[in-house]
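User: I'm new to structure prediction. If I give you an amino acid sequence, what do you actually give back? Let's try with this one:
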Amino acid sequence: MDRLIEQIEHLKHSSSAKIIEKRLISFKNNGKQSEDHLFSELCYCILTANCSAESCLKIQQDIHLSFYQHSTDSLSKKLRSHHYRFPNTRAHYIISAKEYKQMIGSILTHYGHLQRREWLVKYIKGLGYKEASHFLRNTGFFDYAILDRHILSILASHKKIKIPKTLTKKTYLSIENTMKTIAKQTQLSLGSLDLYLWYMSTGKILK
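Assistant: Good question. You get back a string of structure tokens that encode the predicted 3D arrangement of the chain. For your 207 residues, that looks like this:
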């Protein structure tokens, strides 16, 4: 058996699998939450680009549902107090996203698989394919791959891909297809597979 598939299958029968399943249920519940909750999750995903997921989670827990209540300056100061790497740029992105806050729930509900992610990438500053996929997974849509450095690294270590110098749309979709093949072999959704691979790479289960 393929070594990566073997490791995933082993993990599927471990105690970590139960934690992963609980996390997936929490993601489904996120998608049913209020407009403010959805916006908070969107802000979290904007913050995670090139930054530690753990540090961004702490920021989200601190600010909670009040992201939209800040001005650019006050949010930048709040991010700086957490020693966040890009306080000014990401504060600007988040405040810009407030324009679409009331639309997000409708986009998630009424748009199709391809349309959802394309809309997010087009209209929400700071979201590329990785961050848009992250937001969609965290709100209960499990058919998108989140290709962060941990996932790319573990795929490369098992010779499934070569780590690209630039993650263009074409490259992203190509690697996502590789992930779909692995997901099919292991009978997992892409959202589940991401958590398994992330755990294998980091020893942690976050979001």
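You can read the tokens as a compact description of the fold. Here is one thing that stands out. The chain has two domains: 3-27+145-202, 33-138.
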